[in-house]
Write a structure and sequence with these properties.
Order of helices and strands of chain A: EHEHHEHEHEHEHHHEEEEEEEHHHE
Oligomer: homotetramer
Radius of gyration of chain A: 20 Å
Number of helices of chain A: 12
Strand content of chain A: 15-25%
GO molecular function, one term (chains A, B, C, D): nucleotide binding
Shape of chain A: globular
CATH topology of the largest domain in chain A: Dihydrodipicolinate Reductase, domain 2
Helix content of chain A: 25-40%
Chain lengths: ~375, ~375, ~375, ~375
Amino acid sequence: MTKLKWGMIGGGDGSQIGPAHRLGAQADGLFEFAAGALDHRPVEGRAYAQRLGIAEDRAYGDWREMLEGERDRADRIDLVTVATPNSTHFEITKAFLEAGFNVLCEKPMTLTVEEGEEIVRVAEASGKICAVNYCYSAYPMVRQARAMVRNGEIGKVRLVVTNFSHGHHGDATDADNPRVRWRYDPAMAGVSGQFADCGIHALHMASFICDDAVDRLSADFASTIPSRELEDDAMVNFRMTGGTVGRLWTSSVAIGRQHGFDIQVFGETGGLRWASEQPNQLISTPVGGRTQIIEKGEAGLHEEARRLSRVAIAHPEGFPLAVANIYCDLADAIRGETRDGLPGAADGVRSMAAVHAAVDSARQHGAWVDARPPMFR
Amino acid sequence: MTKLKWGMIGGGDGSQIGPAHRLGAQADGLFEFAAGALDHRPVEGRAYAQRLGIAEDRAYGDWREMLEGERDRADRIDLVTVATPNSTHFEITKAFLEAGFNVLCEKPMTLTVEEGEEIVRVAEASGKICAVNYCYSAYPMVRQARAMVRNGEIGKVRLVVTNFSHGHHGDATDADNPRVRWRYDPAMAGVSGQFADCGIHALHMASFICDDAVDRLSADFASTIPSRELEDDAMVNFRMTGGTVGRLWTSSVAIGRQHGFDIQVFGETGGLRWASEQPNQLISTPVGGRTQIIEKGEAGLHEEARRLSRVAIAHPEGFPLAVANIYCDLADAIRGETRDGLPGAADGVRSMAAVHAAVDSARQHGAWVDARPPMFR
Amino acid sequence: MTKLKWGMIGGGDGSQIGPAHRLGAQADGLFEFAAGALDHRPVEGRAYAQRLGIAEDRAYGDWREMLEGERDRADRIDLVTVATPNSTHFEITKAFLEAGFNVLCEKPMTLTVEEGEEIVRVAEASGKICAVNYCYSAYPMVRQARAMVRNGEIGKVRLVVTNFSHGHHGDATDADNPRVRWRYDPAMAGVSGQFADCGIHALHMASFICDDAVDRLSADFASTIPSRELEDDAMVNFRMTGGTVGRLWTSSVAIGRQHGFDIQVFGETGGLRWASEQPNQLISTPVGGRTQIIEKGEAGLHEEARRLSRVAIAHPEGFPLAVANIYCDLADAIRGETRDGLPGAADGVRSMAAVHAAVDSARQHGAWVDARPPMFR
Amino acid sequence: MTKLKWGMIGGGDGSQIGPAHRLGAQADGLFEFAAGALDHRPVEGRAYAQRLGIAEDRAYGDWREMLEGERDRADRIDLVTVATPNSTHFEITKAFLEAGFNVLCEKPMTLTVEEGEEIVRVAEASGKICAVNYCYSAYPMVRQARAMVRNGEIGKVRLVVTNFSHGHHGDATDADNPRVRWRYDPAMAGVSGQFADCGIHALHMASFICDDAVDRLSADFASTIPSRELEDDAMVNFRMTGGTVGRLWTSSVAIGRQHGFDIQVFGETGGLRWASEQPNQLISTPVGGRTQIIEKGEAGLHEEARRLSRVAIAHPEGFPLAVANIYCDLADAIRGETRDGLPGAADGVRSMAAVHAAVDSARQHGAWVDARPPMFR
C-alpha cells in the first residue's frame, strides 16, 4: 500500500503539537511527510522542514506559498494538517478545502459560529474531508463505548456526566507567565478561557458517545483567580436533542488533578465510565448487576474498538496513538471507506456554538440558551 | 468512667438505622442502652426493647410515654436518639429538648425551614445539645481535611466540588417498589427527592470542610425516570459566604456508582480529595508539587483526626465507626468538652433552607436564590 | 436476647489490643464486659477494669485470681479473651479450657508445636470452644471467597498467592526502638520474626479460603537490616494437601506498603483477589471472561458473607468489625450454632508447625520440609 | 537530520511483533524502513515488504539473501531488527554483527548460555551495537526509577520484588491451541516455559532498576495444568551481587491478571513501585514519610526520564512508545552518543544463564545455584 502524502502547517521547532502530529501521521506508516510550512518565520520554517526530511521544493515559507506550490503538483499532498494559532484556522482551512485538499484542523476549528458554518458549507461543496482533531474520541475504548450505546447495550441514555479538570493553572503567582496568561485574556483567547480550551473536548465526547447533539445549556463561569478576566472554572448543564441530561465540569485550578478528563454515561439498562488517565479500560455496569472491566484488546470488542488497537490486551496504548487513530481513520476515508467516527466540520461548528452559548448563559446568570448553530436549528 | 445512659426512639426490629445507632453508641463502651420507644406499634416496640436488654420499665410504647417516663427519673437518659420517620423529627426533638434532654436527631432535622429555626431557638434556650447525624463528617480523614483547611494548609479555598451519586434507583422496572417509590412522591418525601436524601450530606460536607456556609445557589433538577414527580438527579452550583465557588452533583440513577460520595477542595496553595468508599485516605497535592496520600493513623495528623481513630495505620475503619465517632463527640460534649465538629441544629436548618432554595431555583430554571435560613441572613 | 458475659486477660491501659477486643465484643451488643485481669501489675489492672465499668469483685489482679474467682460463680463468664504476651498464651488458655471456659486466644496460640497439640487435645477433652483470633478471615468478603471456592465457583484451586508486607520496620535508625527491636530478638520473639508476626495471618488466610491445609514448604528468610538476628523478610513456597501451589511473601521493610495484606486464588475456572486495605470488595474473574467487582452488601452474596455485614452496599466496614465478626461467631457458637468459619485450635497449631517448618527450611537453604503438626500427619 | 536506514528480519504479515517494531522504529521519524526479509516463505516475504513500501531490490527472500544484498551497499542499513523464531536469533544476530551491522535482537537473544557468550564476544569484536529488546526498561518512569536508585534517593537497595503474571493460559480446555501449547513443550520452547517467556523480563527489570546483577537463585516451578511438561508458574528467590534480596513470581494461569508486570524496590531510605498497566506513574515513599505519585512529564524528573517522554504530563504513553524509546536510544547510540540504558548482549546472556539456573534449581528442589554466565563469574 503506497503511503499517502501529508503536509503540515504550523508545528514548528519547539512546539508540542508538531511532534504529536508527526508521530500520529507516521506511527502506522500510512503517511509520508511530504510538505510543510512549519513556522510563521519563513526562513526558520523552511530550514526546519528540511531537517525533518522534506524536500527543498516542498519546504515552504508560509501557508499561501504551500497552497500555490501544492495545488498543481501531480503528486500533491493527500492531506494537510492545520496546527497554527487558533485565529488562523478559519482562513487556512477554508483556502485548502476550496483548493480541493483534505484537511485535518486543530481545535477550535474557527473562532465564531459564522465562520464555522462557512467551513461546513465549503467542505460540503468541495466534497473533501474536513476533520477536526477531537482526538480523545479516537481512543479504542471510547469507540467501544459509542458502539455499545448505539447498539442499545445500556438502553436509552438518560444522563451523561463529564469532567475535564486539571490544576496546572492553579498557581496565582504564575499569573504573569505568558503561557498561562493568554488563556484568560479575551484579546488573545476570545470569549472563553477554560471552557473553550478543555470543556469543548468533554462536550464533544458526550455527543460522540451518546451519538446525539447538545440542544440547550445553562452555564456558571468563575474566575477563581481574580486577576483573570475569563473563566478558569465552569459548570455547564445541558440537554441533548434526544432528552439526555448533561453535566459538564471543567477547571484549570483543580490542584491535584493532572489530566482529569473522564465521562460517565448512564442509560436505562446500564452505566459506562471512562477516564483519559487510564484509557485502556472501560468500566461497565448492567443495571442490577456487577461492575465489569472491559479491556482494550479483549476478545469480542466491537469492530470500531478492535480495529484501532495495535498491541495485545493490557499493553497500554496512550495519547499519541489516539492521535494516530485519527490519521488511521483519515487514511481510510481518503481511500474511500466510510469512517463515521471521524470528527468533522459539523462537530467544529457545534463546539463553537456551545462556547458562545455558554458565555451568553453565564452572563445571564445561568439562563438556558440554545446551544445549536443556526444552521442546525 | 461510668457509661452514659442512652435511649432511642425508632429503629425497631428490621430497620437498618437501629443497628447502626446501637453499634455507634455502644462500640466504644461510652453509652449504656437504657431506654427505648423503638416501634410505632407499642406492643412490638416494648418487646423488642426488652429483647435488646432494656429493663421492662424503660421499654416504652411510644415517645410520649418515654418522655413522661424519663423526665423525672434520677437516672434519666443522658442522650436520646431520634430515628423515626422524617415527618416526626421536629415534634419529638423539640419536646425532648424542652424537657432538658440532649438529642441526636437523624437527618433531615425538620421538613420546613420554619421548624428548623424553631429547633435552633429551642436548643439554644434549653442549653442542651441538639446534634444532627451528618455522620460522614465524623470520619477521621474528613476531620483531618477540615483541620488542614482551618490551619491554612491549602490557602484560601477557591473551589469545592462534591458528588453523592449512586445507581440504586436506576431500574425503572423497580418503580413500583415502595422502598424506592416514596422518595419521588411529594406526598411522602416533601419537596425534593434525591437532593434532600443524599445531596444535603454533600452540601453539609462542603460547609464542614471549608468551614463556611452556603450563601446562594442555582439548581438544575431532572427526573430521568419520567414517572417520578421529584428529581432523581440534580446539579447545584453555589457560592459560600467567603466567596468559594461550589459544584454539587447528586444522582440515584448513576448505575455503577455504589456509594459515590466524594469531595474535592481546591485552595490557593493546594488541593484535597476524599471519597467515602475509601475513607481512610486523604489525597493531598500542594500547588506545583506531587500528590501525596495521607493515611488515617499516620504520625503527625491533626488532633481532630487522631482522636477519632481506633486502630493502627492502614487498618480500615468504616461507616459504622464514623457513626460511633458522632457518639464519641456527644459523650465528650455531654461531659462538658467543646466538640465543635459535632453537627448541630444550625447545620440542620441550613440544610433545609438549601433544599427549599434548590427547589425554588430549579422551578425558576436555574435562577440564583438565597440559600440561607432567614435567621442567618 | 440476654448478653453473654465476657472477660479479658491482658489488654490493659495503653495497649492497642485491648480496645480492639472491647469494641469487637461490644459493638453488636452481644457481650457484656463482666470480668478482667487487664494488667500484669495487679493494682493497675484492678483499677483500670473498674474504670471500664467492671464490678469491683470481678476486677482481678491476675489471671489465676480471675480463674479462681470466676470458676464457681453462677454468673460466670461465657467467654474469656487471652490478650497477654505471647509466651503466656499457652498456660492461660490451657487453664481456662480445663476449667470449662470458652476461650478466644490471640495469635500465636502457643510458641511450640507440642504446646499447640496439647491445646488441641485439651480443647477437645473439655468440649469447650478454643478460638484463635485470625480476625482477617472474618471479613465478609473473605467469607464470600471461601464460600465461592467451596461451592466450586472457580473450579479446583491450582494456585494461591498471598502477601503480608509493610514498611513500618524499615527504618534502620529506629532499630533501638524497643517496640520494633523485640520482634527480631530470639530471646523475646522466639524462632521467627516477620513470618511469625504477619506471615501466619497470610498462611491461615490461604488455608481458610482454599479450605485446605499446608502440607510442605520451602522458605527463604532474610534480615535485610543486618543488625537483626531474625528475619524481616521471608518468602515461603508451599503445597497444600489437595495439590494447590502456594506462594507467600511477607516483609516489614517494604517501605510504602502500609498494610499490604492481600490474597489471590486461581482455580480452573476463575480467579479471585482480595486486599485488606479495600476489604469490602472481592475481585472475581471467570476464565475467559471479564473481571467483576463483588461488593459487600450486594444482592445474592453467599449467606456466610451476608450475615456478617451490618450496613448497606458500599458503606465500608473495616478492621474493628472484622474482629467483631469473630465475636458474632463466638456468640452463635456458644449458643450452640455451628460456625465452621471460626478459627480454632487446629488452626493455631498448624500455624505454629508452619513457623517452625519455615525456620528449618530457611536454615537448610530452602529444603522442602513437612509443615504439618505431627498429630495431623 | 537524515533518517537512519532500518531493516527487519521476521515480522511478516499477520505477526504481532512486526507492527510493533515498525511503529517503534518509525514513530519518531528516526528510521526509514529500507530493507526486509519478513517471512520464512520467500515469495510472501518479498511481496509483503513491497506492500509496506520497501524497494523491490531490498525486499529479500531470506536473511542470508538480505545479508548479501546489504553488505556492500553504500546506503546499507544502519540497523537490523531480528524478530524471527527464537531458535534462529543466535545465528542471524551473529552473522549480522560479524558483517558490521548494528542489531536489535528480540528476546531471548539465544537459547543457550554458550551461544549468548559468543554473541557477547562477537559484538565486542565487531564494535557494533547488539541490543536486546527488553523494552519495558525503556518506559520513562522505569528510567526515572533507575536514575533515582543510582542517585542514592532510596539509599542502598535491600529488597526487590517483581511479578509478571497473567491468566491468558489459564484455560485447560485451550491446551490444544497451538498458540498456547508450544510454550510448554520442550521441543519447541526449550528448557523453560513461563519463566523464559515472561520471567526474564521481570528479572531484567530488577537488574536494570537496581543497577546490579543476579548472582545466585533458588526456584520453584509448577505445572498447574498437569498436561504441561514445562512450568506455567514459577517463583524465583535470588540475591544480587551487591547483596540485594530478590523475589520474582511469574505465572500464566493467574486468571484475572491481564498483564501483571510490576516491580517494587525497597532501599534504606525509601521504596518505589511501578506497574506496567499504569506505566506513567511511579509511586515513591520516603522512609517515615508519605507515599507520593511521580508523574511522567512533571517538572524536575531525571533527564533519563524526561528525554523519553513526548507529550505533556498525564497524557499517557503506552507500550508501543516504550518500544519506540528503544529505537530512540538506538538512533542516538548509532550516532555516537552514550546510551547506557540500552539493554545489550550482556543482558541477553545473563537472562539465559538465569533461565538455565532456575531450571537446574527447580529440578534440585530449590537448591541455590549460581545464576551468572561463566564469563561473568
